[in-house]
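User: Please fill in residues for this 179-position structure.
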């Protein structure tokens, strides 16, 4: 069964009833992190619970308006990309989900250069929660932080493996916090 979510745009990051933010720094160049975030076929290698993700039948070049679908922890999601700022910001809204998490939801990942060869990752979830998400609200910031920490540790390992094929990266997660 599908649950339809209300379409939202980037303004929702400022107007949503609930906004959660988690950040961490990875020891990898921003370009490598950007490529991993914008190529959904890599996600199952580093994002916990992802079994598949793709741009479906969306034509290249990918960007704002691109359709995306994913299977995460047994649930399905259909999404639309709402921001694609090369190597800086990647955001999408969830259009439909097989779990009743929210009436509207937008996720935004921002990438910033850190000293040396690092990248600061800022992950924001803006939503109008449904009952399921409201019940978990007291625990959600900690869950989100742990999820980002695990995903970024996995991403560093993934990028390290890729470096043997030509990318210049190293693995060392330094920090995770909630804003």
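Assistant: Residues filled in for all 179 positions:
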């Amino acid at each position: 069964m599908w649950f339809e979510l209300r379409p939202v745009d980037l303004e929702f990051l400022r107007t949503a009833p609930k906004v959660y933010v988690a950040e961490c720094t990875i020891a990898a160049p921003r370009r490598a992190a950007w490529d991993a975030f914008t190529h959904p076929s890599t996600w199952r290698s580093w994002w916990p619970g992802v079994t598949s993700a793709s741009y479906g039948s969306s034509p290249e070049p990918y960007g704002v308006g691109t359709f995306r679908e994913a299977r995460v922890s047994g649930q399905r999601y259909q999404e639309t990309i709402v921001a694609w700022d090369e190597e800086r910001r990647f955001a999408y809204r969830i259009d439909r989900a097989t779990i009743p998490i929210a009436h509207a939801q937008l996720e935004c990942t921002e990438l910033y250069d850190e000293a040396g060869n690092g990248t600061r990752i800022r992950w924001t979830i803006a939503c109008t929660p449904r009952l399921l998400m409201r019940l978990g609200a007291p625990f959600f910031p900690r869950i989100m932080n742990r999820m980002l920490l695990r995903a970024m540790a996995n991403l560093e390992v993934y990028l390290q493996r890729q470096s043997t094929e030509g990318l210049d990266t190293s693995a060392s997660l330094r920090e995770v916090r909630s804003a």
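For context: The chain has one domain: 3-178.
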